[in-house]
Amino acid sequence: MTERQEAILMFVIESYINTVEPIGSSFLSENSDFDVSGATIRNELRALEEMGYLTHPHTSAGRIPTELGYKYYVEHLDLGEEITKDTHNLFDTSLVVSQEPKEKIKAFAKFSAEFAGNAVIVSFGKNSLYYTGISNLFSQPEFQNYAYTLNVSSVFDECESRIPEVYEQIAKNEIKVFIGSENPFGGECSSIVTRFGNEHLFILLGPMRMRYKNNIKLISKIHDLMH
């Protein structure tokens, strides 16, 4: 992949995450700084599709990311600065809720679910799960599709049985992103997971079209606060 193709791919994915609309060459010409012709952009989009990073919905002239595209995006993501001062202040407010460790983590989970607009699952060990933000998750545009919603709903029924396997895949102090087919909590979604304590997990679950940059920084902050 050339540098220009990578820049176009990253721009397309970020634009799709923000707009939930397929991204075409005209959008790139009008909203980006790529100093090339529309024909060149169309050729690059076609090349990225042939490489498997983008796909072409039947009803649109634009492209959307594939699972492979999202994986490339996350692997090459520049996280930039840490979360903002305002967000730090909101975390401080969450800390005030309770000094009891389990309640504090629940407060972090509620805050994270609202901040990210996704669901959060916390495993405190065997037979002890906490969920929050499920309505946030199901309010995402992807869930207008009934079959999609049904598939993701089943994740919550089967979640407890998947926790031990996930725990084994994550090293201590690691934050791991699972995308699509590699996601233990449903192939239609992505999850960002970190470990804490003994056999405990903090899981942010959202559609593959999630705001990875913000969410990875969010979970990183949660991880730091829980250690």
From TrEMBL:
A Pfam family per the record? HrcA
Molecular function (GO) terms for this protein are: DNA binding
Name the UniProt key words of this record, in alphabetical order. Answer: Repressor, Stress response, Transcription, Transcription regulation
Q: Which GO terms describe its biological process?
A: negative regulation of DNA-templated transcription
Superkingdom of the source species: Bacteria
Do the record's keywords include Repressor?
yes
Q: Heat-inducible transcription repressor HrcA C-terminal domain location, by residue?
A: 100-216
UniProt keyword annotation of Transferase present: no
Name assigned to this protein? Heat-inducible transcription repressor HrcA C-terminal domain-containing protein
- Organism of origin is Candidatus Magasanikbacteria bacterium CG11_big_fil_rev_8_21_14_0_20_39_34
